[in-house]
């Protein structure tokens, strides 16, 4: 066990020892150990989050390495979650890491996310995103959504029962396609997602809840869209009805 006072000396003034202890007591579920998962898991691990559950069934490929800095050349062909576990353990030996090399499916999502305080969408597809969204609404666990393409990205925090859900924002999934992306874009959005988690866990600052941040790296511009509940959102409707 490293010294809390030494390791976190530059951040404890931001939220106190009490905030640091909240991080240490927290479990964060990270869906994906790729472009977004790399900055998300790295910044949460070094900030002192007690436990990360990282789920990804992919293997490390050379074409991942322009952005997925949890992995290195020597990890090519290895399960991403195990490569990530090695990197994160070296960064913070106090971290408890549960690395699960599985696909997130309707049958597994509940058991995979069990015990998490907050969910992070670091995936690259809307099928999994919608699953995480429904899990958030059924369990009441907040979800931090992020997505990137090219030089652009977006993120928002979904607080079940308060904010619109992901399906309110995006009722229809965009077409599945492999999109180009520069690592720095994933770095910007993934860092913002990690920051949302830290703010939520420590009760610090104002969350991006009910607001969608849109980052345009080509112009260096950040916009915020206020988002509202869609009256015809089938997901919100389902869980509102089931709760009543
Ligand atoms: Zn909704």
Structural commentary:
By secondary structure, the protein is α/β, with parallel strands linked by helices. The chain has one domain (4-243): Rossmann fold, CATH 3.40.50. It is 39% helix and 18% strand. It has helices at residues 4-7, 12-25, 37-47, 80-91, 109-113, 126-139, 166-169, 183-202, 234-243; strands at residues 27-31, 51-55, 96-100, 118-121, 143-149, 152-158, 211-216, 221-226. Helix 3 runs parallel beside helix 8. The model has no long low-confidence stretch (mean pLDDT 95). It binds zinc ion (ZN).
Ligands bound to this protein structure: zinc ion
Give the uncertain stretches in residue-range form. Answer: none
Question: What is the CATH class designation?
Answer: Alpha Beta
Under CATH, the topology can be stated as Rossmann fold
What's a concise summary of this model?
With 244 residues, this protein is of the alpha/beta class. It contains nine helices and eight strands. The chain has an eight-stranded mixed sheet with strand order 3-2-1-4-5-6-7-8, sandwiched between helices.
Helices and strands, with pairings:
Blueprint: H1 4-7, H2 12-25, E1 27-31, H3 37-47, E2 51-55, H4 80-91, E3 96-100, H5 109-113, E4 118-121, H6 126-139, E5 143-149, E6 152-158, H7 166-169, H8 183-202, E7 211-216, E8 221-226, H9 234-243
Parallel strand pairs: 1-2, 1-4, 2-3, 4-5
Antiparallel strand pairs: 5-6, 6-7, 7-8
Helix pairs in contact: 3-8
Bound molecules: zinc ion.
Provide tags for this entry:
Rossmann fold; 8-stranded mixed sheet; single chain; binds zinc ion; 8 strands; alpha/beta; 244 residues; 9 helices
């Amino acid at each position: 066990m490293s010294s809390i006072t030494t390791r976190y000396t530059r951040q404890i003034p931001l939220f106190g020892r009490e905030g640091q202890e909240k991080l240490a007591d927290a479990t964060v579920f990270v869906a994906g150990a790729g472009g977004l998962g790399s900055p998300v898991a790295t910044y949460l691990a070094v900030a002192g989050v007690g436990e990360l559950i990282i789920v990804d069934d992919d293997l490390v490929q050379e074409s991942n390495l322009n952005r997925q800095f949890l992995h290195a050349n020597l990890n090519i062909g290895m399960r991403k979650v195990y490569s990530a576990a090695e990197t994160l353990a070296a960064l913070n030996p106090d971290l408890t890491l549960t690395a699960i090399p599985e696909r997130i499916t309707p049958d597994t999502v509940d058991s995979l996310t069990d015990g998490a305080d907050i969910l992070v969408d670091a995936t690259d597809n809307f099928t999994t995103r919608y699953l995480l969204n429904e899990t958030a609404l059924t369990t009441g666990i907040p979800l931090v959504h992020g997505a990137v393409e090219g030089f652009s990205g977006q993120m928002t925090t979904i607080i079940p029962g308060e904010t619109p859900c992901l399906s309110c924002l995006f009722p229809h999934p965009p077409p599945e396609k492999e999109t180009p992306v520069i690592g720095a874009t994933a770095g910007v959005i993934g860092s913002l997602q990690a920051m949302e988690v830290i703010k939520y866990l420590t009760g610090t600052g104002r969350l991006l809840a009910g607001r969608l941040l849109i980052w345009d790296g080509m112009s260096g511009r950040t916009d915020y869209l206020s988002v509202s509940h869609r009256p015809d959102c089938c997901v919100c409707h389902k869980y509102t009805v089931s709760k009543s």
